[in-house]
Please model this.
Amino acid sequence: MIKLIDKAAILLLCLVSFSFSELAAAPVAALLIALSATALTSLYEGSRTADLIILAGSAGCLFFPLMFCAMPIMLYDAFRQKKPWLALPTLLGLFGGSTLTHEQLLLTFIGGIIAAVLYLRVSTLEESVSKLYSLRDEVEEQNLKLADRNIRLAEAQDNEVHLATLKERNRIAREIHDNVGHMLTRSLLQAGALLIINKDEKLKEPLTELKDTLNTAMTSIRESVHDLHDESVDFKAVVNESIRSVSDRFKVKLDCDYEGELPVRIRLCFIAVIKEGLSNAVKHSKGDRIDITVREHPAFYQLTFEDNGACDPEAEPGSDGIGLQNMRDRAAAVGGRVSFTPSKQGFRIFMTAPKQTGERNT
Model:
């Protein structure tokens, strides 16, 4: 908008300069040519076409000296193109100075000075606006980086809280096992001893009930301890710890894609299979890379374990192997399936475990 206002002001000054001409049609034609040239220059601004239009308009002063009165607008356009020399041919109009009045020459030179000043003003303004836009973009980029960093920090804090919770569960389970469990065991032994040495028939039934109650409590405590311990197992932490134990021989890539935490039964099964797979790789694989992938699908969970150690594709995979049979048993225990595929590219374990009805990640 500022550029249009500046051009309008310069054209108005050119119009005043044209008005001093004694001719009737020539000023109108010159003004129309100047208007057309500056409009086309604005349309093609920044291109070679604009350069050619300005150069052609400037050179036209040699054949049409009255066009010299349009020098300010052509100079302004040349400044916009960052090539002020494009307006130099307008000086050829001075050779036809006999047809130009002193007023026209004066107004044209004043217009040229005004065009230069307006360009400098607009150029400074545009540079400031460009810097502001650049600064805005930098601030926006920094804000995005800060937001991303905050998200990562929040995720790290959540992970630390989760790990702390799991450690606390593990500690509680250990305390219950070491203290309450031992006391209940001692109480059971004492109740059994009392039953053996008791000679009073009236006390036999109460002591038997006491022993049964202690047995029930012991069973309940044992189940609670196992549940607390199982819940305290962090899948990724345990798997990463197992991976570190073989990092001197293999480059292991773990790729997990599931929401929340794996259900306990799947978590423990997959951990056991991965540990067995790493152990077998250390013993038998001649490769140097292992890829472990865990995926959640709408109806089942999937585990893929692959190494790049070449195998005999004709061999029956693990028909007598205790480790592979253990994997089959663990898969069957959660209602899943496991298959083993040896090939010249490596050894592959593929396991699926169905989700239970209404099962949700915890």
Notes: The chain is about 65% helix and 10% strand. The chain has three domains: 2-127, 158-231, 235-354.
